[in-house]
Amino acid sequence: MIITSMSRFRQFVPVVVAVMAVPLAPAVASAQSLGWKPCASIAKGWDASDRRTECATVTVPLDYADPGGRTIDLAVSRIRATGERRGAIVVNPGGPGQSGMRTPLNLAESKAAGLLAHHDLIGFDPRGVDYSASIPCDDDAARPDPGLSEKDKARIRAEHKAASNAACFAKDPALVKSFTTPTIARDVDRIREALGEEKIGYYGVSWGTALGAEYRTLFDAHVDKMLLDSVMPPQLSVKTMDDDMAVAGENTFREFAAWIARYDSVYHFGSTEPQVSHALLRLRSELAAHPRPGVDGDVVNQFFAYPRRQWVEAAGQLVAIRNGDTPSPPGGEHRGFGWDTERTGYSTFQQTALLCNESPTPRDFAAVWRDHLDRVKANPVAGKYGSYEQMCVGWPVSATQWQFSAGKSPLQLVGHVYEPVTPISWAIAMQHRIGGSLLTVEDDAHGSLSSLPCAAAAVTFFDTGQPTTQSCPGAPIPAPRP
User: Fold this and answer.
1) Radius of gyration for the chain, computed over Cα atoms and rounded to the nearest angstrom
2) By mean pLDDT, which of 23-27, 141-145, 251-255, 281-285 is the weakest?
3) CA-based diameter of the chain, in Å?
4) Which string of DSSP letters, residue by residue, matches 362-419?
5) Dihedral (C-alpha) 440, 445, 446, 449: value to the nearest 10 degrees?
6) Please, what are the domains in the chain?
7) Is 464's pLDDT higher than 50?
8) In what order do the strands lie in the sheet with 71-79?
9) Higher per-residue pLDDT: 316 or 334
10) For residue 55, what are the CA distances in angstroms to 4, 44, 101, 136, 175?
11) Cα distance between residue 13 and residue 333, in whole Å
12) Could you tell me if 191 and 76 are in contact, meaning their C-beta atoms sit under 8 angstroms apart?
């Protein structure tokens, strides 16, 4: 059980008296000093019907190497525990660049709602995102002439993105350089201090798992329990991310083709996986060579990588294309600071900055294009969709790699067996690096634990500290319609 601030004070009074001559560290702010207010009353764009979530700000150093220098404000949210409170769980939904202010409410409305029985849920916007200190940046995409070669179109996009990144970087270089996982982990610890907690729980998804691993590396003594869902790799390389996602996407295509084959009476692409794969790739080739209005090879290819819950839709669209029809399409600027920010829920620039600040990969287009060609050759279906590596073309500063290490605090990892976004191999590699127990989910859905019945395992873990190595089913694949 988490020891409250008052009980810690009573426990250590004799020690404080004995060492009164030693200079004391600054007092930790209490939760009451944060000045919690209903988010709907102070945060622009907040859902007025949300009466549960409270908001506050925490002030942190811009640069932790200069704690007496410039400071910035972080936006923090809270939903209070509904029962006997045992502590707080800080949550982060990933990105990087994604807002976490609504994550407590999202969890409270999910199958993981039992977390609130004994814990406050604490969300926050990382520096660079929405209500926290950030930088207004235009993120308009280049529109190269469609008649250009694929390489020339890619070069124009990369150069346009590099110029946009340089303009955003120049607005506040010191802040942009601080968009790193270790710095944001230190921000999380300042949030812990402001809450008045000796230890915090942590629930992270996607990039939020890297943030959790970094926090546990730096502050393991302040971790109560930690759960990481859809786990990032232990070392960041945007090239490796693109490579591994392409391999996983290629596997997804073969699994999709095998599923279509089981329903040949509905789709008529073939009764075996090789037959269906051949038919789908032939359809793609035909439309690449002879595109129709609204349909070309790229349009066909995008339906090959749909998640399992949308396989019925994707297969139906492919049938429509084969029959000569046009398929249905697959399913603003950030200004201001603080509570008056026009909330977007995401910062593309913060994601780019953080990944490029920490990924030691090529900054020149020629090297990135060579990697792209190798990726497409190895993965003809999914290889062309890799986009992370080209984000860092022209990035102006060198990278500092993650350095995660094992800890002693209870750790539950969650990996998804068929997921292409954060492949299961990343969770296994992270487990080898930092320890913990691995729960596997039989689905391809990114960060889906909280939406499944086995979210009960997360609640049990935070209540008892006992992780699990069980496997649980994901949501079933819908049956095809005749």
Assistant:
1) 24
2) 23-27
3) 85
4) --SHHHHHHHHHHHHHH-TTTGGG--TGGGGTT-SS----------SS-EEEEEETT-
5) -50
6) 48-135+174-232+405-473 (3.40.50.1820), 244-322 (no CATH)
7) yes
8) 37-38, 54-61, 71-79, 119-124, 87-92, 200-206, 223-231, 411-416, 437-442, 471-473
9) 316
10) 21, 12, 8, 22, 23
11) 52
12) yes
71-79 vs 119-124, strand pairing mode: antiparallel
Q: pLDDT tens across 347-403, in order?
A: 999 999 999 999 999 999 999 999 999 999 999 999 988 889 999 999 999 999 999
Residue keyed to tokens 């409250």: 4
> Are 220 and 227 a contacting pair, CB within 8 Å?
no
Please report how many Cα atoms fall inside a 13 Å half-sphere around the Cα of residue 24, on the Cβ side.
10
Please spell the DSSP secondary structure of 63-104, one letter per residue.
-TTSTTS-EEEEEEEEE--SSS--EEEEEE--TTTB--TTHH
State the Cα–Cα distance between residues 326 and 293, nearest whole angstrom: 8
* Chain CA centroid to CA 270, Å: 37
Cβ contacts of 478 within 8 Å, gap of 6 or more: 309, 311, 312
37-38 and 54-61: which strand pairing? Answer: antiparallel
Instruction: Assess contact for 274 and 396: CB atoms under 8 A.
Output: no
Token duo for residue 323:
């029959």
pLDDT band at 121 (very low <50, low <70, confident <90, very high): very high
Query: Which two structure tokens, joined as six digits, stand for 226?
Result: 């930690």
Would you state the pLDDT for residue 339? Answer: 55
Say if residues 334 and 159 touch (Cβ distance below 8 Å): no
Name residues whose C-beta falls within 8 Å of residue 265's C-beta, 6 or more positions apart in sequence: none
Q: Give me the pLDDT at residue 330, please.
A: 55
* Cβ-based neighbours of 267, under 8 Å, separated by 6 or more: 260, 315, 318, 319, 480
CB 241 within 8 A of CB 266: no
- Per the model's pLDDT, the better-predicted residue between 390 and 29 turns out to be 390
Q: Cite the DSSP H helix spans in 19-172.
A: 39-42, 103-108, 150-171
Main-chain phi, psi angles of 80, to 5 degrees: -75, 150
Q: Measuring CA to CA, how many Å separate 236 from each of 33, 358, 389?
A: 37, 7, 11
Polymer length in residues for the chain: 482
> Residue 27's pLDDT band (boundaries 50, 70, 90)?
very low
Q: Would you say 23 and 7 are in contact if contact means Cβ atoms under 8 Å apart?
A: no
- The 10s digit of each residue's pLDDT in 395-448 is 999 999 999 999 999 999 999 999 999 999 999 999 999 999 999 999 999 999
